[in-house]
Specification:
By secondary structure, the protein is an alpha/beta fold. It has a domain of 178 residues: P-loop containing nucleotide triphosphate hydrolases (Rossmann fold), CATH 3.40.50. 36% of the residues lie in helices and 25% in strands. It is built from ten helices and ten strands. Strands 6-7-8-3-9-10 form a six-stranded mixed sheet, sandwiched between helices. It has a four-stranded antiparallel sheet with strand order 2-1-4-5, with helices on one face. Helix 3 packs parallel to helix 6 and helix 6 runs parallel beside helix 7. The longest helix is centred in the middle third of the chain and has 14 residues. It is globular. The two termini are 29 Å apart. The relative contact order is 0.17. The protein binds adenosine-5'-triphosphate and magnesium ion. The site of magnesium ion has 4 residues, from helix 1. InterPro entries: AAA+_ATPase, ABC_transporter-like_ATP-bd, ABC_transporter-like_CS, P-loop_NTPase, PstB-like. This is Phosphate ABC transporter ATP-binding protein. Pfam families: ABC_tran (PF00005). Keywords: ATP-binding, Nucleotide-binding, Phosphate transport, Transport. One of its GO terms (molecular function) is ATP binding.
Amino acid sequence: MSNTPPKMTASHVTVHYGTKRAIDDVSIDIDQDEVVAFIGPSGCGKSTFLRTLNRMNDTVASARVEGDIRLDGHDIYAPDMDVVQLRARVGMVFQKPNPFPKSIYENVAYGPRIHGLAQSKSDMDGIVERSLTRAGLWAEVKDRLSDSGTALSGGQQQRLCIARAIAVDPEVILMDEPCSALDPIATAKIEELIHELRGRYAIAIVTHNMQQAARVSQRTAFFHLGTLVEFGRTSDIFTNPRQERTKDYITGRYG
Ligand SMILES: Nc1ncnc2c1ncn2[C@@H]1O[C@H](COP(=O)(O)OP(=O)(O)OP(=O)(O)O)[C@@H](O)[C@H]1O
Ligand SMILES: [Mg+2]
């Protein structure tokens, strides 16, 4: 872990849906150069917590978020925070690949156009090529950029969604079970990609796959029933957990 301040800090975060508490007093920080994995049984609040990091829960009418969440030291829930801008800086990749029903090119160009990141067609071409290259997809699609994004394979669609997130030059990328709809080969490609993206973006990834958490992350957070049971170096969590509940989960006793 570096000496620079964390990219994101979440302190004492509690989330309710109506009267139901889904996250209870969770504090986690994410460094600039690391991948943090969120693990835990279904329904323990991993997605809920992940979504607080770019205010995706704003779109859920019953959701109420308390606590303090900062990006580069700035409170992302402050009244002057531009949420559209925030979601470009903290991008998100979902469980099911969800390309727009538009061309491959347009899927990537859409965000940069909205945010005014390209001054010309050749600027935009450059952003599209660079984003697809970083997402490990350029070689496979460079001759069919006008084909529909939905015509790609599941694994390619997920890499297209990663390219789309990268295109607006984010600082943090949130991934909610990005491989759960993919076969093992496509999954391996995404994991490889996560390795390559590390350092350029801070990454938080929710996964049900323990081996995946061990392979891609430097630190792991174990959630159970809305609480953060343990957060530490991935190697420690998997080989030498401090909490009994963590040990039970990683040895497959429940979940
Ligand atoms: N929009 C919502 N409205 C009401 N309750 C919700 C909503 N979304 C999630 N919840 C509840 O909050 C709790 C945490 O859900 P969440 O989706 O964050 O869990 P999770 O750890 O991501 O689970 P999974 O591994 O199955 O994706 C659950 O009890 C869930 O039913
Ligand atoms: Mg979830």
